[in-house]
Structures are given as C-alpha cells and as structure tokens.
Write a structure and sequence with these properties.
alpha+beta, 8 strands, 18% strand, globular, Peptide methionine sulfoxide reductase MsrA, L-methionine:thioredoxin-disulfide S-oxidoreductase activity, Met_Sox_Rdtase_MsrA_dom, MsrA_MetSO_reductase
C-alpha cells in the first residue's frame, strides 16, 4: 500500500527527502552525439527548454535528433529534494520528475517546434505514468524559462487538448510551471541510448498530430 501511494502522491516539502548540498558525481563534459558541452553557461544566443515526458532515456533521444538542438542533458526537476539520486527519485519521495534540458538555437528552430515534438512524443493525458512506466517521476511536465515560454506552452496545451478531445482522449495532465532547480542525472543516464542502442525506450505518442502553427485552439 505504501509503494502504491508513492506512485500516485507527490510528497510535500516536509515529507520529501532532504537531499544534499552537492551532487555526488561530476557530469560528463560533452554530449556523446552532438559534441557540445552538457552544462552551462551556454553560448550567447542559445535558449533553454525543459520537458518531462516519461523515461528520460528515450525522451532525450527525441530531442537530440531534432534540428537546431545544440545539446541535451537529463536530470531531475519539479520536486523538493536537493541534488537527488536516481534511486531517491524512483522512490517517489522527492517529487521530481525525469526531465530533459534542451539547449537550442532560436535562429534554426523555435520553442513552438519543440513543444510540438514534446506533445506528439508521449501521451500527456496519462497521470503519473507513461505506458508501463508507473510513478510520479514519469509525469508529463513543461518547465518554462520566461513569461513568453509560459504563455506559449499554455496555448499549445489548449490547442492539443482540442484535437485530443476530438480523437477520444481525456484531459491533459501536463503541469506547466516556471522552471525551478534542474539537477543533472548521473553520468550513465546521459545519452543512455547512444551508449546502449538496444536499451529500453518507453517513449510513445498518441498518434494525434499537434496543431501548433496550423490552427488556433477553439475558444
């Protein structure tokens, strides 16, 4: 019963594990596919977007393959525990979700294009799960870095809800919040599916196209 509750309940700051002031590892210097640094500060003119769409192994690959993406890294976001470990996040006692940080060139791609890829690459109507991956760490999330990103993410959610409803899906469960601390995951998680091409990937969309840039949301 306790395990089941942890899969369906976000702990409060008082309930969450306390964590630690510093991580117990060093993030690798460069992206194994793109060749660029993983951690900032990033070159001037680039922008940052953060997404949670299930297991971050497959989610990261979705974005590093996209045009205009300069680097990606996976980590933990949206919770209370400082510098959590993977095991702590999977316990359900940190309130973090598995997230992908996407650093992109706005001269080549757009935040809207990344949002379209985000919506179409998972099922945002699932709550605290993606497919067979069950737990609060797999919840759908967008963490924004400006009022403009917040507004665009909310508008895209409304647009996608319209077409999902028309296709028989329920309400989108995605949380859209201003970005808080992003804690990079352990080195073996970074670009996991590049290092392990036959590794597990639980990412899968609804098959419903997101109408960003095609038609506005109703209402």
């Amino acid at each position: 019963m306790l395990f089941s509750r942890r899969q369906n309940h976000l702990p409060t700051p008082e309930e969450a594990l306390k964590g630690r002031p510093e991580p117990g590892f060093t993030v690798p210097d460069r992206h194994t596919v793109l060749g660029n640094p993983l951690n900032g500060p990033y070159p001037q003119g680039l922008a940052v977007a953060d997404f949670g769409l299930g297991c971050f192994w497959g989610a990261e690959r979705v974005f590093w393959q996209a045009p205009g993406v300069w680097t990606t890294l996976v980590g933990y976001q949206g919770g209370h525990t400082e510098n959590p470990t993977y095991e702590e996040v999977c316990s359900g006692l940190t309130a973090h979700t598995e997230a992908v940080r996407v650093v992109f060139d706005p001269a080549v791609t757009s935040y809207g294009a990344l949002l379209k890829l985000f919506w179409e690459s998972h099922d945002p109507t699932q709550h605290f799960r993606q497919g067979n991956d069950v737990g609060t760490q797999y919840r759908s999330a967008v963490y924004t870095h400006s009022p403009e990103q917040q507004s665009e993410a909310e508008s895209s959610r409304a647009a996608y809800q319209s077409v999902l409803t028309g296709s028989g899906y329920g309400e989108i469960a995605t949380e859209i919040l201003p970005a808080g601390p992003f804690y990079p995951a352990e080195p073996y998680h970074q670009q996991y599916l590049d290092k392990n091409p036959a590794g597990y990937c639980g990412i899968g969309g609804t098959g419903v196209s997101c109408p960003i840039g095609v038609a506005p949301a109703d209402g």
